[in-house]
Amino acid sequence: MTEKLKSTIENTGEVLESARERFTGNIENELERAAEKEKSAESEDIRNEALEIASQHEAAQEKKARESKENKKDQPSLTKADVEASYKKTLDNVQKQLPTPSRAFSKVIHNSAVEKTSDAIGNTIARPNLIIAGALGAIASIIVYLIAKKYGYVLSGSETIVLFAAGWCIGAIIEYGRVGLINKQKR
């Protein structure tokens, strides 16, 4: 019986050893699964946290944009009266620093009637391109004088003025045609 007992004990030891190995393997497997679950849960938590931070950041950006729009609406825009007052104040300061003759000339030139007239003329008949075209026409009067001298014609003296006016008219046609084409292309 002792041998039977010994063999049973050995078998029991082997069974216990195999059970222990299976149990240890199962525990290791369970631990690995638990670690994987924890990692996936942890990564899910991190992902959720990142999404929450991103949404908070987006909400803060939208809030800043709304506030900046509201601040722009709250700021008063410059009126024509504000611009005029600023212009007059600056003009007065500059005129105070000028010598007396220059100050008098500046006051005449910056008179509102003179300024408005000058602006109107500068924007219509005295445009730089029109003046250049008129000057080219006046320069052409030299050719007229040379031809008249060669063939013995007598000139009245108004040729330069007439050629200036003709050059100005040709320049006006070209200028307004060019400006019209540019504006038509922009539309």
Task: Explain what this protein looks like in three dimensions.
- The protein has helices at 2-74, 80-97, 100-109, 112-123, 128-139, 141-151, 159-186.
- Helix content is 88%, strand content 0%.
- The chain is mostly helical and 187 residues long.
- The longest helix is centred in the first third of the chain and has 73 residues, at 2-74.
Key features of this structure:
187 residues; mainly alpha
What would a concise description of this structure say?
The protein is mainly α and 187 residues long. It contains 7 helices and no strands.
Helix and strand topology:
Elements lengths: L1 H73 L5 H18 L2 H10 L2 H12 L4 H12 L1 H11 L7 H28 L1
Count of helix runs:
7
Low-confidence stretches: none
Q: Name the structural class.
A: mainly alpha
Q: What is the succession of H and E elements?
A: HHHHHHH
Beta-strand percent range? under 5%
Share of helix among residues? over 70%
